[in-house]
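Researcher: Structure for this, please.
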Amino acid sequence: MKEKIQWAVMGVLLALAMMNSCNSCNQSTQEAKTKRAIERLDSTLATKPTAGMVDTIIRAEGLRVSKRVVYGQNAVVRTTARPDDLMNQYQQEIDSLTR
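Model: Predicted structure, token format:
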């Protein structure tokens, strides 16, 4: 009878040890996932432009557009194409790009 109790206690202790090891594996897996998520968030925040950078980008794009407009106006004057024909052509290109 005493032997059966010892074996039962050893079995319970073995089961508890196995459950503890599985739980620690699960915790380490969760920690690794959390660390990866934090690293992704940090890298995203590091590449996010500041307000000053956005203003600079918008200003540069505005200047590029102005440059294209001036070039386009000069090109219309130098060619025999009518401005409304060019505007229609541009609108068709815009429509094809936005589809």
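Researcher: Any notable elements?
Model: Helices lie at 2-47, 51-78, 83-98. Residues 31 and 79 are 67 Å apart (CA to CA).
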